[in-house]
Structures are given as C-alpha cells and as structure tokens.
Amino acid sequence: MFATMKQIFNPKNKDLRKRIYFTFFCLFIFKLGTTIIVPGVNSSAFDAGKLGFLELINAMGGGAMEKFSIFSLGVMPYITASIVIQLLQMDIVPYLAELSKQGGTGRTKLNQITRVVGIALAFFQGYLFSFSVIKGGTPIDYMEFALILTAGTAFLLWLGDQITAKGIGNGISLIIMAGIIASLPTMFVSAWQSLIVTTSTQALTLGIVKFILLVIVYLAIVIGVVFEQSAERRVPIQYANRSVNSVGAKNSYIPFKLNSAGVVPVIFASALLSIPAIIAQFVKKDGFTLFVNKWLTMSSGTGLILYILLIIGFAYFYTYLQLKPKELAENLNKNGGFIPGVRPGVDTEKYVSGVLNKITIVGAIFLAFIAGLPLVFGSISSLPTSVQLGGTGLLIVVGVALETYKQMESQLISRGYKRGRRR
C-alpha cells in the first residue's frame, strides 16, 4: 500500500494526482451542499428530531436529512431504482432483458432508464419526506420542496459521473462513503455519551469497558471486510493452442472472489428496508408506524433477520448478474480454453455454477455476520439507532475504500506497462 502511495506522488503520475485532487474537490462540494438548507424552509417548522429508522439514510448523506439540506435524499433513490431495474432485467420485462444482452450499448440505455426512474423516485420520496417533517405547509410548498430535493439528487448523480469520468472512479459509491465518513465522528461521540455514565465508579468502569468493546467490534468489521474482499478461489485454465509446460498455461486461472458483489448487497438491503420507513413517516398512522418500528427496522429482531436475508439474497443476485456461468463457458470455448478435467460447454457451465454457489454462500453469510454484529452489540448495549447503524456504514466505507484502492493500483500497473512498451 505504501509503495502504491509513493507511486501516486511520483512526478511521472501527474495525471493521476489531478484525478485525486478533482475527486476531493467534488466530495468537498457534496459536503458543502449538505449544510445548505432547502430555501423557503422555516427552521421552527422543521421537525428533524424523529428520524428514527431513517438514521442510516441520514448517515449515508453526511447528516443532510436531519438538516433538511438540498442533498437530504442523497443518491438512495438511484440505488432503489437500480434494484428495481436489475430485478426487471431477469426476464420480467422483455425489453429490459434484451437490453442487458446488447453489450455496451444496452448498458448505456439501461443506465439512462435507471436514472429516469431514480429521478422519479426522488421526487416521490422528496414529497413524502417534506410532508412528514414540515409542519403547516401547503401542497404547493411540498411540491416546491420535492422539486428542490429532486434537483439535489440529480446534481449528486451528475457529480458522481464526473468523479467516475474525471476522477478516480466509483463516483456514486465514493459519495456514499464520504457521507458516512462525515457522520462517523458524531456517531462515536454519541456512543461515548450513551455508554459513559458518571453516576458511580462501577457504572463509569462498565461504560468504558462497553465503549472499548464497541471499538473492538468496529475493528473486527474492518479486518473482516479486508479479508473477505481479498479472499478468492482460483480455477485453473488451460488453452488448446498452448503447451502444457508453458509458463502461460501454468499461470492461467479464473479468480472467483469469496464475495464478488462487494458491499453492494449491504447498500441494496439498506435501501430496500428504508422504503417502509419513508412510507411510515408520510402516512403518520400510529398503528403502521408501530408495526414498522417493531418488525421492519434493523434494530428489531425480525428486521435484523430480514436485513441478513436480504444481504444474502442480494449477494447471490449481484454475483450472478456480474458473473454469468453460461457466458463464461461460451467465452472459454471460443478462445480454446478449458478447465482441466471438465468438458467444455454445459459441463463447464455446471462446474462454474457449483463453484460460485459454494463460495458465494460462505461470502454472503460472512458479510451478513459482520453487517449484523454491530446491530446485535448495539441492541444489547442499548445504544442509539445512529450508533447501531454506524457499523453498517463503516462496512460500506471499508468496502468502497478497498475497491477504489484496487482500481488506482491497476491504473498504476497499466501506466507502468505502457511506459515499458514505449521504451
């Protein structure tokens, strides 16, 4: 890692440094926007003290929701739209399924459709959120607030595109990561204030022990994510046009990650669980709100189980969305490659599916475990919701940071290779 940082600040990699500076500038713009309150909102009419189960969305947005900032919704409507569109691609909507098979052109169209759906969801969620937290507004006022919040989400999507194109990549993920990092200091302060009680020496000691255990849990999350992102199963590959004893044949393999989906399942599961919370904020029915609080929040037993099941389900879904055994088997066959001891075609497809099933279930359960660990610890210690959900946020931060680091490392390797060829 230190060697990579040294390479980044090498005078020869001036372009890469510019990309890093540009990325930091964009993230600064994002953080600055989280402090700008929606125009026309009277702070006395704004009731942000009861976010409750919307704390995770607030954390991902850098605290924008509790301030009713122009970036209150963040990029979560786009994440929700991504889930919907990807599900509809699974032969549910023939047009979308056909686009998914058209390569780069199809992906571009799907991305455009996802953004349109995301903007529509942003307006819908913005109206619900405005209605639930602004007292005494008229329908026109709520419409104006919803339009401003939708514009904020649209700007963040554009900003994410700029980071992807002109920065270091992973634009949307980096915006989520930046929002969570901005919320972490507040979360640790809240944890300290909740656990450290000075009424007696015994209570003070117990509080300090609990706080140290909380820090250990968070360190375990960091180590666990690093391990999971690095672990992989290597399936050897041989090619008919190469000698068995050649160096290329010995080193050829397909690396299958223990968790090919990264932290996407956690983000997707969090986004999906936030939908009932947003609806509950809008309808303001005591019965429905109580139902959501009791059964559908991550701090409840059933909500935690549902959260874990969603993570496992999305881990499988996203893995097979990225790595399609049938296409992989066909590409191997076209290039004259085969897995030793496995027949090309259907047998290769079945073998790859078997490998993916085995490693994905292990990776998904491990991911669900490290995502649920801080929630369990938080409920046992009676910590605030924001602190309990901080572990999920930290998991996302570490996952995105590792993915971004690997992208930068691959860019450095590619640049070094190109320089070597010029010589």
Structure description:
The protein is mainly alpha-helical and 423 residues long. It is built from 18 helices and four strands. The strands form two sheets. The chain has a two-stranded antiparallel ribbon with strand order 1-3. Strands 2-4 form a two-stranded antiparallel ribbon. Helix 5 packs across helix 7, helix 10 packs parallel to helix 18 and helix 15 runs antiparallel to helix 16. It starts with a helix and ends with a helix. About 1% of the residues have low confidence.
The pLDDT mean sits at 81
Radius of gyration: 24 Å
Report helical residue fraction. over 70%
Q: Report the structural category.
A: mainly alpha
Query: Which parts are unreliable, with pLDDT below 50 for 5 consecutive residues or more?
Result: 245-250
Order of helices and strands: HHHHHHHHHHEEHEHHHHEHHH
As a percent range, the share of strand residues is under 5%
Largest sheet: 2 strands, antiparallel
Shape: globular
Main β-sheet, spatial strand arrangement: 1-3
Distance between the termini: 27 Å
Helical run tally: 18
The total of beta strands comes to 4
Tags for this model:
about 425 residues, mainly alpha, two-stranded antiparallel sheet, 18 helices
Quick recap of the structure?
The chain has helices spanning about 1-10, 15-35, 55-60, 65, 75-90, 95-100, 105-135, 140-165, 170-195, 200-230, 245-250, 265-285, 285-295, 300-320, 325-335, 345-380, 385-390, 390-420; strands at about 230-235, 240, 255, 335-340. With about 425 residues, the protein is mostly helical.
